[in-house]
Design a protein that fits this description.
Elements lengths: L3 H9 L7 E5 L12 E2 L9 E2 L3 E4 L11 E7 L13 E5 L11 E4 L3 E4 L2 E4 L11 E2 L10 E3 L10 H6 L4 E5 L2 E8 L3 E2 L11 E2 L2 H8 L5 E8 L3 H11 L4 E5 L10 H7 L2 E6 L3 E2 L5 E5 L4 E5 L3 H19 L8 E4 L4 E2 L5 E9 L2 E4 L16 E5 L5 E2 L4 E6 L5
Parallel strand pairs: 5-6, 13-16, 13-17, 14-15, 17-21, 19-24
Antiparallel strand pairs: 1-12, 2-11, 3-10, 4-6, 4-7, 5-9, 8-9, 18-20, 20-21, 22-28, 23-27, 24-25, 24-26, 26-28
Helix pairs in contact: 3-6, 4-5
């Protein structure tokens, strides 16, 4: 049995080769950049009026004239091509180009207009490039804006559109098969269930946690027989990713590890020092499929997805950002085993509060929780104020 760190390192060393593609802008959120996003020109592309006002030239030292002659008006979307003579000014609307020979813009609220002459209210302060956004002050042509491998987020869309990315360099979707196992598994829609039956929650948990990633899911079911598992794994291994839930422990009907090997998978590890989720199985097939075998208990599945499968998917798309953040725990916690433990928790304004639950099979453990905390194997006790790794259930960036 290997440590959590060793297990995660092995998983991340077997990422899937993803295929670059271009995706329509509004369909790209949640995907990853397959190329670096760069500015195609200066932004703003001209000296831009930040307010509606009057623009004129000033040398920066001489007294401001009592009045300037109004030569005309420039609206957004227009360019002024006529000569501007000494002591003339232009009325310029917000967003319009300011001719480069003009270097001061005074708000329309601060001017006095009479007979085509413009003067200014008393006690105004003047400065060069006042109320003018300089060409290129936001971005200069060729500037790297977003790095390859970064996840495409909602807040990127406006910038991408401004930069001309109607189609975004990203990736084709991965394909994934979720294979739920067990004679007791039935569909959630079934109102009538026998006392020994369990409604499937695991496939829904996996798809929910990974719903914003570029992955297409298919769900299959297998009874607890070696023959049934082999039949379904043979179909599932046609996907890029195979996620099996249940049947990976050491019970009499836990045939998943054997079935995976018989289907041509190489086992890289079986069991890791984590709680819950110790029986996790990980392997690869020569056809490129990567398989995870997760214990069937609901919280074990959630842990396996958050600490192994989600980082694996990100890494396959060139993203190595952490799926956790560092927070402060608000109370003490003692640990009785030398494993990395993952515990359901809530984040509030004071920090992280661990929730009580009844083990990995507790179906209500996740209710009203916002994520989970990692209690590291080498840390015997946590004290109030200690830094901990917190995994939020949904992380977009």
């Amino acid at each position: 049995m290997i440590s959590f760190d060793e297990a995660q390192k092995i998983v991340l060393s077997h990422t899937i080769k993803t295929i670059p593609s271009t995706i329509p802008l509004l369909e790209s959120i949640g995907n990853f950049y397959s190329d670096t996003i760069v500015a195609d020109r200066n932004y703003p592309p001209f000296n831009r009026a930040a307010v509606d006002g009057i623009a004129f030239y000033w040398d920066g030292t001489s007294p401001i004239r009592e009045s300037y002659q109004l030569a005309g008006t420039v609206f957004a979307g227009e360019i002024w091509n006529t000569e501007i003579k000494d002591f003339q000014c232009l009325r310029i609307m917000t967003g319009a180009p300011v001719p480069k020979q003009l270097n001061v813009l005074i708000r329309v609220e601060d001017i006095i207009a009479a007979n085509n002459q413009i003067s200014f209210k008393e006690d105004l302060t003047f400065s060069l490039m006042q109320n003018i956004a300089r060409e290129g002050e936001d971005l200069t042509k060729g500037t790297e804006v977003l790095q390859k491998g970064t996840r495409i987020a909602t807040q990127h869309i406006s910038t991408l559109a401004s930069l001309g990315y109607g189609f975004v360099p990203s990736f084709e979707f991965l394909t994934a098969t979720i294979l739920r196992t067990g004679n007791e598994i039935t569909e959630p829609v079934n109102k009538e269930v026998a006392s020994w039956q369990i409604r499937d929650s695991n496939s829904y948990t996996i798809r929910t946690l990974l719903k914003d990633y570029p992955v297409s899911f298919h769900v299959r079911t297998a009874k607890d027989t070696l023959e049934a598992l082999i039949e379904q794994i043979e179909e599932g291994k046609k996907s890029d990713l195979l996620i099996v839930t249940g049947g990976v422990s050491a019970g009499d009907a836990d045939y998943v590890p054997e079935a995976l090997v018989k289907c041509g998978f190489t086992c890289h590890f079986h069991k890791a020092k984590i709680r819950p989720g110790k029986p996790i199985w990980f392997g690869t097939h020569r056809n490129g499929c990567v398989a995870f075998g997760l214990p069937g208990n609901p919280f074990s599945v959630q842990v396996g997805v958050k600490v192994f499968i989600e980082p694996f998917i990100r890494a396959s798309f060139g993203n190595t950002e952490k799926t956790f953040c560092t927070k402060t725990i608000t109370h003490e916690r003692a640990k009785k085993i030398s494993f990395d433990e993952f515990i359901v928790a809530n984040e509030n304004e004071n920090g992280i509060v661990i929730k009580k639950h009844n083990g990995s099979g507790d179906i209500s453990a996740l209710l009203s929780s916002t994520g989970m905390v990692q209690h590291k194997a080498e840390v015997e006790n946590l004290s109030a104020g200690d830094a901990v790794y917190f995994y939020p259930w949904i992380k977009m960036d």
